[in-house]
Amino acid sequence: MITPSNSHSRLSLIGHFDLDPNRVFDIVLECFEMQPHINLFLDLIPIFSKSHASQILGFKFQYHQRMEVQTPVPIGLYRLAALLIKQDFVELDNIYAHLLPKDEEAFENFTTISTRRLDEANKIGKINLAATGKDLMEDEKPGDVTVDLFGALDMENQAVIELSLELESSQPLGLLTGFLFVDDWNHAYMLFERLSPLTPVANDQICSELF
């Protein structure tokens, strides 16, 4: 347990070796992310400035938003952010501002993919058994949708995969998963409400944490 006296000692060490407090804080957060079961890190965090915590965490999320970075956000980072929010060390809105995609963009993409998926599924019932592939290319008229069963199923499956990838790459949904990991149901409920147009339970990890 960190007491006022040993807290002062740790801050003195940072000053004595002329260390950058933000860099030290970043290292503490990174260690806690990798080893969340060690509560000592949670005791260390309050000795640092709250005003920089959201920015440091935000930079970690922004790193995974770069085009050249192919690795997804580790679940440990979502868990860490959720725990710091639960402990009132950072505000949800301050972290949420760093996450992508933004709500409006996510809702629009989700609606577009879902609509295309529904359209492809509806085409399965419109089959011209007498038509060949060449006939369909030459004779298809505007508004006259005729596709083969396997082609329609394949297109519908592609839409399902695209939708699944969209949900898996969503950082806001990842943070929601983090809240479920740390049993923060108050903030989890807030994100369930906020992200309801995305149907969060369609995300495999969220679904598994709930059930």
Overall, the morphology is elongated
Q: Based on DSSP secondary structure assignment, what is the total number of beta strands?
A: 0
User: Which assembly state applies to the chains in this document?
Assistant: single chain
Rg from Cα = 24 Å
Largest sheet, strands/sense/barrel: none
Average pLDDT reading: 80
Count, helices: 12
Topology overview:
Blueprint: H1 4-16, H2 21-34, H3 40-44, H4 50-63, H5 75-86, H6 92-96, H7 103-123, H8 133-139, H9 149-168, H10 171-181, H11 185-194, H12 204-210
Helix pairs in contact: 2-4, 2-5, 5-10, 7-9, 10-11, 10-12
How would you describe this protein?
It is a single chain. Helices cover 66% and strands 0% of the residues. The protein has helices spanning 4-16, 21-34, 40-44, 50-63, 75-86, 92-96, 103-123, 133-139, 149-168, 171-181, 185-194, 204-210. With 211 residues, the chain is an all-alpha fold. It is elongated.
Précis, in short:
The chain is mainly α and 211 residues long. It has helices spanning 4-16, 21-34, 40-44, 50-63, 75-86, 92-96, 103-123, 133-139, 149-168, 171-181, 185-194, 204-210. 24% of the residues are buried.
